[in-house]
Design a protein that fits this description.
The protein is 59% helix and 10% strand. Helix 6 (145-166) runs parallel beside helix 8 and helix 32 (709-717) crosses helix 33 (729-742).
């Protein structure tokens, strides 16, 4: 039977090519990717980077909204990896896993990954099944079961990846995760955060496993995991930041890309017209692309609907009528709006009836061309008078009532054509999806109604700042009524980095003609009532209104200073405004606008530049008031200003946790001049050299004389912002003054103000400062002298030069003792000398530090030698007296190591230097003695092996001697005696008595050798005589001869080698002829001992001749004296 005809045959198609989604894995390979050359290149580059550097995880994000092709890209990339990845001319095998959805279960994610891995490589099945279940054992505490689960998942995946790479030869393993829809849809924050934590843990644990991850996200999913404002906020940001870096974005398609996509789809399901846009009317592509914004899946669904419509009405092409049918009430996949409003179309048609009697009929007849194809219709296609009527505004009733011009006229070569007007398009295509057009419309709204949208613009700015992870947004804005509308500022706590307090900033946007007074009132309210220390205003070079200027002039000095000095203004350039920056802010800030995919907050804030301006202002204007725990650190440094501290010292002495004090935090305090650094250690800052923040009070007192605390605060706030919470200003100023007092720079006094006496502070007099500086110089010189003495004791380098400098500075200091009325110049000279002495101290510290490092390094080297020697002893497996001796050595080495460790820990460098040399010599001695001891053991083993070989050989010789021979029993007895002595040796060796054991072996050696030689000689004689008798046996035939032969054998076996020759001679006389031996001897004589001639001229073959030669030569009674071998000439 023939196949049933497709309903699309009339359109030249075998089936609907637009109905299948790209996410269907089975059909993904059928269709090409279009318009994504750059993205495909970067995806392949990601894969190749995992091949070039396979061990360290490569991570990348691929962003794209629903229906933009993430699935298609990832599935195709997976298949390419499975076929082999070529890098630099070489092809590598790698595993590739595609997971359609990240999900919210770490166990389910694990199962899906394993399932995909086994699909790619079934050879891993047995290994995977051998792994333990990731589900924690029931004995595990319930509170820790989830943590154990995520640990087990990470462990199993690492093992699988490692096994695949090391045992099966795969270069890398890739994990492509398509979507995070579950995260976006889930309302349970706790559930989402727990999964994010687990997935982040998985990424961290597998960082060096050889696994590389490509993670697909929509903007909605990214916002879903980074939106929380509690302490867990860092989780989502941490995950995104872990993957960020050269992110890959899948945007929408251009018209040419759309056309290519449609042709590719149709070519897969037709045999004719391949490569052509037919049966689609080409003009519809431009319309659909513009309406959908180029969104791939929306376009496919629209053309699928249009194709089915065309088939239903038996059309042979997909024209504008089919497109209008498909677009009508089609809900956008990107925004919850209809692309072509059916209600608007109906309203327009009703309005056409009133405009002209024939207008509606004409419009309905031509709407496919006007709307679906965007065609220019010639004038003669309309009824008379209709074009003119529709070029004038007509009234349209309904929700968006108003006047609309329906047609616009075009002149082409003297003929008139009519197209649908932009007003009509906007009316009908309310949800038109072109991002640029949508943003442009929003920008126009924000520009034309600045007061109406000020609140939303400000919210958009705040959300964009928060999206960068630079701060946390307060829940409620500061608001004020402004005529018909409401202005708002949003408060955001801007993070300044470790060791620095966050600053609350009131952020706002205004793009009206001049800055209104209501906006300035909002900033003042944010400052006075909501804790804002700074403001930020994005504007466009507007000036304040006259009313606003009057308001500012009427403020008190504190409020006026905030408005004039603490509000950072960012003026947008014309170029920025031309890029619809207000429209983008409005898209973010208006909660009724679905801004996903329209605006990237990171890019927006980078363009505006507000963060950099804030941080620069913070650095220049804030006088810091650190948290209590960090104030304690600074005060501890001050109380111990003669010491230098590591961070570990400070944490231990102040009992501070690592999260409250680490290198980053100390670096932040140092950036604010709250602490200083000496080498690698931390110290209290010098007031005049390091200029800590309280120096600003000293500078003003020095310039203006005594000031009250209020006056000091007024002076400071004219230039700086106090970095404390509202209400803590006096505490902060007093904390600064306390530092200056304790450092003897200021002292309490009183001043008269308007006839009243007030407490105040003033600088210590020049003379007092001079005396204090001179005392400090002496103190520093004394410290330098101590360092010098230490350097001498440690035998540091350049000692003489340091000695000369100390003597020079001492002489200079003595000259200052003669100054009785010091001036500022004298004070400066003393301070300059202090600088020189401090520099000397630093040089001495470096010299001492270098020498200490050398001493410690030598000690560490010796400790390493001790450790090596102790390991040698522990592996020796020696017992007994030698074992005890080795134990003594090991104990002594341990004591020496402990001594060195103690000296290092207690920083007893001088003694450490001396003891290191002594201990090094002793370690060398012990090493030699251990080597000798272990050498005796080796000699025992080698000697024993040699003697055992001799004993075994002797035993073989004895066993070969006939049992009737009395020597057999005697020799066996001697061998048993020697074996008992071997037993003695074994006991001695096993008990560690190696020298005694070696002596025993040396005593056994001669006796064993003699025994072997004796047994060997008896065996040889026995074998020779028996061989001769065997040769005679065939020649003896008479009974008497046979008896004599048997008697001779018994004589030989008894070992009567004296009688045996006589009996053999008698038997030879009885022989019928010469024996084979006699024949061989005769041949030797005849051929002058030529072995070659005997073999070639007689009946002796080579084997028998060799055998006879051996017997004759070994017989001591034979006539053979020597055997000569003749070598061939070279």
């Amino acid at each position: 039977m023939s196949e049933p005809a497709s309903k699309f045959n009339e359109l030249g198609l075998e089936r609907d090519p637009f109905s299948t989604t790209i996410a269907d894995e089975e059909i993904a390979a059928q269709y090409s990717l279009v318009g994504r050359d750059d993205q495909e290149y970067r995806l392949r580059e990601f894969v190749q980077s995992g091949i070039r550097e396979p061990d360290l995880m490569k991570r990348r994000l691929i962003f794209g909204e629903y229906g933009t092709g993430k699935s298609h890209h990832l599935i195709e990339l997976r298949d390419e990896v499975r076929e082999g990845v070529e890098v630099d001319g070489e092809t590598y095998e790698s595993l590739a896993v595609y997971v359609g959805n990240l999900g919210l279960s770490i166990r389910r994610l694990y199962e899906k990954i394993v399932e995909e891995i086994l699909e790619d490589e079934p050879g891993l099945q047995d290994y995977v099944e051998s792994l333990p279940d990731v589900e924690p054992d029931s004995s595990v505490d319930e509170a820790y079961q989830y943590e154990r689960l995520q640990d087990n998942v990470a462990t199993n995946l690492r093992k699988i990846v490692t096994h695949a790479r090391e045992e099966l030869g795969y270069r890398s393993v890739y994990l492509f995760i398509d979507e995070a829809e579950d995260i976006e849809a889930e309302n349970d924050e706790q559930k989402v955060q727990r999964f994010i934590r687990s997935f982040l843990h998985l990424v961290n644990e597998l960082n060096t496993s050889g696994l590389h991850i490509l993670l697909g996200f929509s903007q909605g999913a990214r916002m879903a995991i980074t939106q929380y404002e509690d302490d867990d906020d860092s989780l989502g940001n941490a995950l995104v930041q872990r993957f960020q870096g050269d992110d890959i974005y899948l945007g929408d398609l251009t018209e040419s890309d759309v056309k290519e996509m449609l042709i590719d789809r149709m070519d897969a399901h037709r045999t004719s017209n391949r490569g052509e846009i037919s049966p689609i009317v080409e003009d519809t592509v431009d319309v659909v692309t513009e309406v959908t914004g180029g969104h791939p899946r929306s376009i496919l669904q629209i053309y699928s609907e249009a194709l089915n419509y065309a088939a239903k009405v038996d059309a042979d092409r997909i024209d504008g009528d089919a497109i209008v049918y498909a677009l009508r009430d089609f809900t956008s996949l990107v925004r919850d709006e209809d692309l072509l409003s059916g209600e608007a179309l109906t309203s327009l048609k009703k309005a056409l009836e009133d405009a002209h009697p024939d207008a509606r009929d004409d419009f309905e007849r031509l709407e496919g061309r006007l709307i679906g194809e965007g065609d220019a219709i010639p004038e003669n296609s309309f009824s008379d008078g209709v074009p003119g009527a529709l070029m004038s505004p007509i009234t349209v009733e309904g929700e968006d009532a108003g006047e609309i011009r329906v047609l616009e006229k075009r002149d082409r070569h003297g003929r008139y054509y009519y197209v649908l007007s932009e007003e009509a398009k906007d009316f009908l295509f309310r949800g038109k999806g072109d991002e640029g057009t949508e943003t442009q419309k929003l920008d126009l709204q924000a520009t034309n109604a600045p007061d109406k949208y000020q609140r939303d613009l400000s919210r958009g700015l705040a959300l964009a700042v928060q999206s960068m992870g630079k701060g946390s947004l307060h829940k409620d804005p500061v608001t004020i009524a402004a005529g018909r509308y409401e202005y708002a500022l949003h408060l955001i706590d801007v993070d300044r980095g470790p060791g620095k307090r966050e600053q609350t900033v009131a952020v706002g946007v205004y793009n009206g003609q001049e800055i209104p007074v209501e906006l300035l009132k909002l900033y003042v309210e944010a400052y006075q009532s909501r804790g804002a220390t700074f403001g930020a205003l994005v504007k466009q070079n507007q000036q304040q209104s006259a009313e606003a200027n009057k308001y500012v002039n009427g403020l008190d000095s504190e409020e006026r200073q905030f408005v004039t000095d603490r509000i950072i203004e960012v003026n947008l350039s014309t170029e920025q405004r031309d890029n619809f920056i207000y429209g983008r802010l409005l898209a973010l800030g208006d909660s009724e606008i679905q801004a996903e995919g329209m605006v990237d907050g990171h890019t927006l804030i980078s363009e505006i530049g507000i963060i950099g301006g804030l941080q620069e202002t913070f650095t220049e204007t804030i006088l810091p008031y650190p948290d209590k725990v960090h104030r304690d650190v600074i005060e501890h440094l001050e109380k111990n200003d003669a010491r230098e501290f590591t961070i570990g010292d400070l944490k231990d002495e102040l009992d501070i946790q690592s999260y409250n004090l680490n290198g980053d935090i100390m670096g932040g305090l140092r950036d604010q001049n709250l602490v200083a650094k000496s080498g690698n250690r931390w110290v209290y800052p010098d007031i005049e050299n390091d200029k800590p923040p309280w120096y600003e009070i000293y500078r003003r007192l020095n310039e203006r004389g005594a000031l009250t605390v209020d006056e000091i605060q007024d002076q400071l706030t004219t230039e700086f912002a106090l970095g404390c919470s509202r209400g803590d200003e006096n505490a902060m100023i007093q904390w600064y003054l306390d530092h200056l007092q304790r450092q003897n720079y200021v002292e309490p006094t009183t001043v008269e103000r308007e006839g009243e006496i007030h407490d105040a502070y003033d600088i210590v007099s020049v003379e007092d400062q001079y005396n204090e500086a001179r005392s400090r110089a002496q103190s520093r010189l004394d410290a330098a002298q101590e360092l010098y003495d230490e350097a001498v004791s440690l035998d540091a380098k350049s000692i003489n030069s340091y000695k000369n400098r100390i003597e020079d500075y001492s002489t200079q200091l003595e000259q200052f003792d003669e100054v009785f009325n010091p001036t500022h110049n004298d004070l400066n000279e003393v301070r300059s000398l202090i600088d020189d002495i401090v520099e000397l101290e630093e040089d001495l510290e470096d010299a001492v530090s270098d020498r200490k490092e050398k001493i410690v390094g030598d000690a560490v080297s010796v400790r390493d030698d001790i450790d090596d020697l102790q390991r040698k002893i522990s592996k020796s497996d020696v017992e007994g007296s030698f074992g005890s001796q080795l134990d003594d050595y090991d104990e002594e080495l341990g004591e020496l190591d402990t001594e060195l460790e103690s000296l290092v820990d207690n920083e007893q460098y001088e003694r450490l230097a001396k003891r290191t040399g002594n201990i090094d010599d002793r370690v060398d001695t012990i090493d030699d003695e251990v080597e000798q001891l272990l050498g005796v053991k080796s000699k025992c083993t080698e000697k024993f092996k040699q003697l055992r070989d001799v004993a075994d050989s002797a035993e073989d010789h004895i066993d070969a001697i006939a049992a009737e021979n009395s020597s057999h029993t005697e020799l066996e007895a001697e061998l048993e005696t020697i074996e008992s002595r071997f037993d003695d040796y074994r006991d001695q060796f096993n008990s560690g008595e190696f020298k005694v054991a070696l002596s025993t072996l040396e005593e056994i050696g001669p006796d064993l050798k003699s025994l072997k030689e004796q047994a060997q000689g008896i065996e040889q004689q026995q074998q020779q005589y028996l061989k001769q008798l065997d040769d005679l046996d065939p020649e003896i035939s008479d009974e008497e001869g046979k008896e004599l032969l048997e008697e001779a054998r018994k004589t030989v076996k008894k070992g009567d080698f004296a009688t045996a020759p006589t009996l053999i001679d008698d038997l030879r006389e009885r022989a019928k002829g010469p024996t084979r031996r006699e024949q061989f001897v005769a041949a030797l004589r005849e051929y002058n001992g030529s072995f070659r001639k005997i073999v070639t001229e007689t009946d002796f073959d080579e084997a028998e001749a060799f055998s006879q030669l051996k017997d004759v030569y070994s017989d001591s009674t034979s006539d053979i004296e020597d055997i000569t071998v003749v070598m061939a000439n070279e």
